[in-house]
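Title: Comparing notes on inverse folding

I've been comparing how different people in this forum approach sequence design from structure. To keep things fair, I'm posting one structure and asking everyone to reply with a full sequence. Here's the target:
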């Protein structure tokens, strides 16, 4: 935090507002909201919304018991599970899994940012590539430190995408739809061809049968999940009682996030894959041989204790961002830190992200501690006997 004055902050905010981007967001959000209304009617999602809210409430109410069952079942299925108290513990665990010769491919999971894993891998000279196509563009374009979700390339013209891919592939990619998509695929195939470790998030985890459920639109998470080592990074709030509950949560998220009424792909993993020769089973199937699941607390239990647990009901559908006038103007950014004004902290954007980042980021924790201390002093002064 820079400790700038309100006026300095206001100037900084105004200088950051990009009218073209505000307009692009407005158009894009209106379109998403229209589609969402159609999806609601077509799939009659009100019942599902109610059910998912009930599942999340129930899960957080019985979180410790659910986590106990989930860990036991996942380990029983052959997965390795770490319950990480904080970001350092999670990061250290992952760094121990990585060899100097490894190449890491990741899909979209904000926990990588939350635990500072990219920086740690960079220091060890371990390559980390994003293989979700939109986020790969962000990686190839260092100017885009902060970007809109779930469509980070919303602000990129096709000519810019062609230029970024040309640089990555070291050949001229024409600014033409088919050529761009072919090049995009080639770039990501190159990465997946050499990657040895895959990192994904989890949309939900079914405690009862110990499986991880994911949804994705771009069609390659199953390839990340089939790399020799698959690491799943997720918050403890993603654990729900049953497989049907996990599907309900994931399905609702996909209906609202994709803007198209459901993702093209869903992926479930329950354990390492196996192969058979002459009827004998070997731990060498076509999928991952090792699966590690990191269940991160890092302030989430505290959120629940302090009465902010409802923010963990969030399934990351981004609906609230698309209706939020503040987000439309400011967009994403490091709201906690005020260095780069925006609404929310990096991956955790918008109103819900602001609450979450005040518990899971160091700056957020410091600000909240300061605010709580100031409140206590004010309260003490108010109730002091000499008043
Ligand atoms: S808080 Fe926002 S992103 Fe999360 S579930 Fe609600 S509308 Fe979706």
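Reply #1:
Here's my take.
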């Amino acid at each position: 935090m820079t400790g700038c004055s309100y006026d300095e902050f206001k100037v900084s905010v105004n200088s950051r507002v990009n009218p073209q981007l505000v307009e692009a967001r407005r158009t894009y959000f209106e379109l998403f909201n229209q589609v969402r209304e159609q999806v609601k009617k077509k799939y009659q999602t009100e019942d599902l919304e109610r059910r998912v809210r009930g599942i999340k409430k129930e899960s957080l109410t019985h979180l410790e018991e659910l986590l106990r069952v989930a860990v036991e079942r996942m380990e029983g299925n052959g997965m390795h599970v770490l319950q990480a108290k904080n970001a350092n513990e999670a990061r250290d665990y992952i760094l121990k899994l990585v060899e100097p010769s490894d190449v890491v491919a990741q899909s979209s999971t904000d926990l990588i940012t939350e635990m500072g894993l990219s920086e740690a891998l960079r220091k060890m000279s371990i390559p980390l590539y994003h293989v979700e196509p939109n986020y790969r563009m962000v990686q190839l374009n260092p100017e885009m430190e902060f970007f809109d979700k779930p469509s980070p390339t919303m602000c990129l013209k096709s000519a810019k995408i062609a230029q970024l891919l040309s640089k990555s592939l070291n050949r001229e990619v024409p600014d033409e739809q088919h050529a761009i998509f072919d090049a995009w695929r080639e770039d990501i195939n190159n990465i997946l061809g050499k990657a040895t470790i895959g990192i994904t998030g989890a949309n939900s985890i079914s405690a009862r049968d110990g499986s991880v459920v994911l949804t994705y639109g771009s069609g390659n998470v199953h390839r990340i999940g089939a790399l020799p080592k698959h690491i799943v990074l997720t918050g403890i709030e993603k654990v729900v009682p049953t497989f049907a509950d996990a599907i309900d949560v994931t399905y609702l998220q996909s209906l609202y996030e994709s803007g198209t009424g459901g993702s093209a792909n869903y992926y479930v993993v329950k354990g390492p894959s196996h192969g058979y020769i002459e009827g004998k089973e070997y731990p060498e199937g076509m999928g991952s041989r090792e699966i590690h699941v990191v269940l991160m607390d890092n302030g989430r239990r505290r959120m629940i204790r302090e009465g902010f647990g409802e923010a963990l009901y969030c399934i990351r559908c981004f609906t609230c961002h698309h209706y939020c006038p503040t987000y439309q103007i400011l967009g994403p950014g490091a709201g906690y830190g005020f260095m780069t004004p925006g609404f929310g902290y990096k991956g955790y954007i918008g109103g819900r992200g602001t609450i979450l980042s005040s518990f899971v980021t160091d700056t957020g924790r410091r600000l909240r501690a300061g605010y709580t201390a100031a409140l206590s002093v004010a309260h003490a002064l108010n109730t002091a006997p000499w008043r």
